[in-house]
Amino acid sequence: MATKLFIPGPTEVAPEVLAAMSGPMMGHRSKAASALQRRISNNLRRILLTEQEILLSTSSGTGLMEGAVRSCTAKRAAIFSVGAFGDKWYKIATGNGVPSDIFKSELGQPTTPEMVDAALSTGKYDTICITHNETSTGIQNPVEEIAEVLKKYPDVVWCMDAVSSAAGSRIETDKLGVDVLVTSTQKALALPPGMAVCTLSQKAYERTASVPNRGCYFDLRSIYDTIQKKDYQYTNTPCISIMYAMDLQLQRIMQEGVENRFARHEAMAEFVRSWADEYFSVFANRDHLSCTLTVISNTRDIDIASLNNSLIERGMQLGNGYGDLKNKTFRIAHMGELTMNDMRSITSSIVDILKLK
Ligand SMILES: *Cc1c(COP(=O)(O)O)cnc(C)c1O
Q: Does residue 271 sit in the same domain as residue 341?
């Protein structure tokens, strides 16, 4: 029996989308490749609420996080971390020799607009990196309020990790003024892992010109220039198979309706939060909860691995806590293909297995 995934990636992929991957190869310099890639970008713009250019990368999301901080930082990056994935962005920056500082919040707490203002008021930074949705703690950062602060700093390039929320949460990329929004295929987009997506604003593009060492594979400027010059064909050979799947999945998302999709995620999130309140407790600050996954404190000190084994026998799998939060928390993802029925099914199974009252 296949196990239905309630882990925060990879997520469930619809059978017809998986089947689309078995289509025949095409030349990546063909007219058909241009048409496919242009169609994908146009549909992604509607989901990411942007008019900016879309860049695709054959890598996981981390690749474009690297591309973003490295290609856009001419001076110094301020990296705001609310958990494991923010820490990772700092590691990426230092590993690439990009001058940067990290500003950490306590686990379960957001990055505040005050923190961003305090850092930027020093005048030391020309780039900020913010996690939209921290998959280790279940925090969704107050990006609207952060956007207000950023209006005071028009020259700062804003990079945002929306790997585990884009296409599930409503993110107003352009209205907020996000310059580079990064996501991956295997989370709320509900595709197999293997490709990453980012937006690139004109401001970010112009910035890249003043960064001498942008690397090669993840150089956002060179990717952008190539797709302009070659009608949406990429610098290197992309994963054509995932593009077939993406093309179909984006059409399925359009059929559902982008707003309906966001509302479905919100409804699942509300359901899981109130279930967690009844039997355990929600880990993160209540005012800043993720719409695509809920991190639940293990207040009953249950054996999470053994719970998961029992769930797997019933054809479901949840996520243990991430990193330091392993066994102290567990995670139920409510993103991508999952529905309210799936939420009822996993929560009632947990109640049944643990004989919760
Ligand atoms: C999964 C995840 C990543 C890493 O993405 P990959 O596609 O695995 O490289 C980065 N940030 C967040 C918030 C994530 O959830």
A: yes
3 state SS of 310 = helix
Task: Determine whether the shortest distance from the Cβ of 140 to ligand 1 is under 6 A.
Answer: no
CA distance 53 to 151: 22
User: Taking each helix axis from N to C terminus, what angle separates 61-72 and 84-95, rounded to the nearest 10 degrees?
Assistant: 50
Distance 135 CA to ligand 1 centre (A): 8
Is the C-beta atom of 60 inside 6 A of ligand 1?
yes
CA–CA gap between residue 117 and residue 176 (Å, rounded): 16
Co-location of 230 and 307 in the same domain: no
Q: Which atom of ligand 1 is nearest to the CA of 164?
A: 15
Token pair listed for 146: 């952060």
- Domain residue limits at 234: 15-254
Tell me the pTM.
Answer: 0.98
Q: Do 193 and 163 contact (CB within 8 A), yes or no?
A: no
User: Binding residue per annotation — 264?
Assistant: no
114-155: pLDDT as tens digits: 999 999 999 999 999 999 999 999 999 999 999 999 999 999
- Give the other-Cβ count within 10 Å of 95's Cβ: 10
Q: Is the CB of 131 under 6 A from ligand 1?
A: yes
Look at the chain and count its residues.
357
Conformation bin of residue 215: beta by default, left when phi > 0, alpha when psi is -120 to 50: left
Residues 21 and 42 in one domain: yes
